[in-house]
Amino acid sequence: MSGTGSTLNHRRSTVNRLSAENVTLAYDQRVIAEQLSVEIPDNSFTVIVGPNACGKSTLLRALSRMLKPNAGRVLLDGQVIQSMPAKKVARTLGLLPQSSIAPDGITVGDLVGRGRYPHQGLLRQWSAEDERVVQESMARTGIAELADRYVDELSGGQRQRVWIAMALAQQTPLLLLDEPTTFLDIQHQIDVLDLCADLHEEHGRTLVAVLHDLNHAARYATHLIALREGRVIAQGAPKDIVTAGLVEEVFRLRCQVIDDPETGTPLVVPAARGTRAKGAAEKAGAMR
Amino acid sequence: MLVESPPEQRAETAAAPPSRRAVRAVGLLASLVLLALVALASIAIGAKELSLEQVWHGLFEDSGTYGDVVVADRLSRTVLGVLAGAALGLAGSVLQALTRNPLADPGLLGINAGASAAVVTAITFFGVTSLSGYVWFAFFGAAAVGALVWFLGGSRGATPVRLALAGTAISAALFGYLQAIMILDDAALGRMRFWTVGSLASGSDSTIVQVLPFIVAGSLLALALARPLNAMAMGDDTAKALGANLNRTRALSMLAATVLCGAATAACGPIIFVGLMVPHVVRSFTGPDQRWILPYAAVLSPVLLLGADVIGRIVARPAELQVGIVTAILGGPVFILLVRRRRTAQL
Amino acid sequence: MKTNRAVRSPGGLSVRLDVRALTVVVVLLLTALTASVVLIGTGDFPIPAGDVLRTLVGEGNAGQEFIVTELRLPRVLVGLLVGASLGLGGALFQSISRNPLGSPDVLGLGQGATAGALTVIVLFSGTAGQVALGALAGGLVTGFAIYALAWKRGVHGYRLVLVGIGVSAIVTAVNGYLLTKSDIVDAARAVVWMTGSLDGRDWDQVWPLLALCAVLVPLVLANGRGLRMLEMGDDVSYALGVRVERVRLLLMLSAVLLTASATAAAGPVSFVALTAPQLARRLTRAPGPNLAASLCMGAALLVTADWVSQRAFGAEQLPVGVVTGVLGGVYLLWLLVTERRAGRI
User: Fold this and answer.
1) Tell me, what DSSP letter sits at residue A123?
2) Which of C37, C172, C233, C257 is deepest in the core (most CB within 10 A)?
3) Which of A126, A130, A166, A210 to mutate to test the interface with C (most CBs of C within 10 A)?
4) Radius of gyration of chain C (CA)
């Protein structure tokens, strides 16, 4: 995938389904990004990384139609996303937002079922197809046996899976995830990321995720976009772009980049300071 | 008395440029002067305008002229305004610090409504007619509603929205109760309809004398709580780490707020938004330090209250618009503005 | 999914049914109707239930016919319609504000309608019909003002609640002022109106309410699905293709209209809008706004409360608002206890 990743950077947006063209993004009067252009390669697992307040969540919100750009446009399947009918977008683009509220007393099955809303209508409230898709989504995310449990009783990791199942039930070819691993412990973080990787590989879904952990991003992404202060610093396959130089430029962190012994993808190892650096103790001893 | 500030904090306040403290002290003095001016205006302005000479005469050379009588009457009213204003301002500051909720106001949280309902009950069912009698009912009403709102709003997990809702719901219930009394008892209707709106017109000397000790006691308690409230502002865990005794601080703060609100409401009827607006204004130039917020609030709240009273007397000449209405009409838009300015996450 | 069933037609249409919720709705409807029949039979001339039914069908005797159709039936119909409107309006408000205490009584609509009514009574000494119009206008203006003031690139539930509280405080003060400005006779009349009462309601109140409900209730129920999605948060609803702002505006509009007209008809009957949706939810045990159940619960509650207000105090008849006020107070305390037990305290 890495080869296609870098050549895609030179292609025009008519190839990719989702892209942002020269967008200016702002909240009230605070401008987050100006003249930002981003392409999401089809069938990729794209991850957007960057330091706090670089605009990664903002960009994702703009791509998902939740934030209207002050200038420029976001295109989905060649059309400006803001002018498309809401349900049509919802059938093409799924979103796992950062903030979601599980209504009191709702069961897992019910919540996942709500993901079918874009496919339903006043007289088409619950077809056999809906039932099948919901069962399938719950099986894919490993929560099928929790179907009758109440969502507020579940653990953080389980709950995140339920929300992912709901997004899956929407049956969209593109899926956007806003920091899906925050507040989860390491085991569940890897679980969720593995699940995302499966979803990407099996049906060629396009996934776009915002992750705050650079190493996770480097391990799972097929296409990485590094932002700083609203500008794209680099984009491409992790193997191609994750270098010590990039990390220093984007995160202001000195490091060395080695190969992950499990996956071969880049692994960022932050530089150690003072006495914690390997060999520093000997150096200090030698200096005395 | 209650919390030793840790070494870093002490060093900080010592290192805080003496100029800043000096500025604040000067500001406080200026506020006192402002208060004196507003008080003067309160005595001079009204249905009958008095010249400064007449005011002077009335204050210092009282010889029974008509002007002197008016001055004496307005003087009582002004003194009551100062006391009630200070009480409400301090109660509001304490409540805002206690609930960590910038939208807290004793009126909005139903505490004043609780006090009023209790007073009405005392007058109607227990035949208590003197203020020093029913002021104790007012305390009880204020405390009961305060506790109820706290629990209904979710106590530890109380967000500004839940507290405000709980307060309003309980006020609605209490008001329904008052209405029922007014329907069943015609005499009560005659009395009570003037009492559901706060007013300084009831300011007689005996009222002042009876309510003064409570307000003074409550104010002293509130001022003494400045340091512990500073500690509490940083969150329960941090406060405990700093050595603050949370439960004692909470209890004493509630006590102070109850006594102050109860006394003010017993004397004047329910007045809202004073305790909300003044701490906000004060915070904008003192910062979050309760050791400055509380004294400023105590001085500037009477300025607001007396100012509202004066406006009420000017606007509706020769009759008067009760101060409770003026503060509501002034404070409502301010409250809404404050709500609009905050991001929803903070609500 | 436990009690959910789907009914499917061969043409690909399907309807989702929650068996328990449906049962609750039917039971509440029957309760409301039974209470209505009993209420019609109550009064200075008691009429047994059987006779009431016969009269309604047209086979009663002339004397009973007059009492039933001219005096009592319209009152009961107003009670049913007002209760239903308040129940539904309350459910909408609580759902949009995402808080069980976010009801139109608390958010200032009742106060606004009162202001309109008081203005008519105190300043114009108006007739009952004019008072009702004043109340309607007051409620509508207040509702729109609250929505407009809370609007900031969209309306978020919490801001709506707080603005409502602010507006309510202002209007309450104005009402207090109007009360002090009036003479004692007007004041007494005002206080009675402010408590909410079904006394003397006749066919003039029934038709407008019926027409409004006939239009709004289906409209609201049709948008119930969108509202259910809204409860999961704006982001999720947006992602699912709900037109968040449009749905919210439509439902708010309907809620304001329903509440304002109910208040115009019967005065600000307290706490029905607050308690009906919560009680309905306890019965159906279904998450979501429970619109139909709240509607029926509101109707049942008000008619029952009216019956209580007529029978429970012997010779002295209290306005129904007093009974619902007591109900509301008890409910608040009960809410306190259950919240405490649920460990949320």
Assistant:
1) S
2) C172
3) A126
4) 21
- Contact of B196 with chain C, judged by CB distance below 8 Å, is answered with yes
Record the tokens describing residue B346, joined without a space: 């903070």
Each domain of chain C, given as residue ranges in start order, spans: 19-342
pLDDT tens for each residue of A94-131: 999 887 788 878 889 989 998 999 988 877 888 888 88
Question: Using an 8 Å Cβ cutoff, are A125 and A106 in contact?
Answer: no
- pLDDT (mean) for B100-123: 83
> Full-prediction pTM beyond 0.90?
no
Contacts of C176 in chain B (CB under 8 A): 193, 196-197, 322, 324-325
User: Does residue A87 belong to the interface with chain C, where contact is any CB pair within 8 Å?
Assistant: yes
Q: Of C273, C297, C289, C296, which is closest to residue C103 (Cα–Cα)?
A: C273
Interface with B, mutate which of C96, C97, C101 (most B CBs under 10 A): C101
Helix (H, G, I), strand (E, B) or coil at C236: helix
- Judged by a CB distance cut-off of 8 A, whether residue B152 touches chain C is yes
Characterise A50 by phi-psi region: left (phi > 0), alpha (psi -120 to 50), beta (else): left
Is B148 in CB contact (< 8 Å) with chain C?
yes
Handedness of CA B195, B198, B200, B206 (dihedral sign): positive
Query: Which residue type sits at A121?
Result: G
In 3D space, the residue among C303, C296, C310 whose CA is nearest the CA of residue C78 turns out to be C303
A partners (3+ CB pairs within 8 A) are C
pLDDT band at A6 (very low <50, low <70, confident <90, very high): very low
- Averaged pLDDT for residues A53-81: 89
What sign does the dihedral B297-B335-C169-B140 (CA atoms) show? negative
Q: Which chains touch B (3 or more CB pairs under 8 A)?
A: C
What residue in C sits closest to B148 (Cα-Cα)? C336
CB within 8 Å: B347 and C321? no
ipTM attached to this prediction: 0.79
Give the C-alpha distances (Å, rounded to integers) separating C114 from A96, C142, C173. Answer: 45, 11, 11
Altogether, the residues listed in chain A come to a count of 288
8-state DSSP, A115: G
The tokens 């305790």 sit on which residue?
B275
* Partner-chain residue, chosen from C101, C179, C328, that has the shortest CB–CB distance to B165: C101
- The set of residues, in sequence order, having a beta carbon less than 8 Å from that of A273 and lying 6+ positions away, is none
User: DSSP states of B159-172 as a string?
Assistant: -HHHHHHHHHHHHH
A255-259 and A231-236 beta bridge pairing: unpaired
- Report the neighbours of C using a cutoff of 3 or more CB pairs below 8 angstroms: A, B
Query: Which 74-113 residues of chain B touch chain C by CB within 8 A?
Result: 103, 107-108
Strand order in the sheet with A18-27: A30-40, A18-27, A71-76, A79-80
B164 to C162: CB separation less than 8 angstroms, yes or no: yes
> Does residue C10 have a cis peptide bond before it, meaning omega lies within 30 degrees of 0?
no
C235/A99 touch (CB, cutoff 8 Å), yes or no: yes
Chain B residues within an 8 Å CB radius of C156:
344
- The helix (run of H) or strand (run of E) holding residue A26 is strand A18-27
Hey, what CATH topology would domain C19-342 get?
ABC transporter involved in vitamin B12 uptake, BtuC (1.10.3470)
CB-based contacts of B108, cutoff 8 Å, min separation 6: B164, B167, B168, B272, B273, B276, B335, C165, C169
Spell out the residues 6+ positions from residue B3 whose beta carbon is closer than 8 angstroms to its own: B227, B228, B231, B242, B243, B244
> Do the Cβ atoms of B128 and B122 come closer than 8 Å?
yes
Return d(Cα A261, Cα A269) in angstroms, integer. Answer: 13
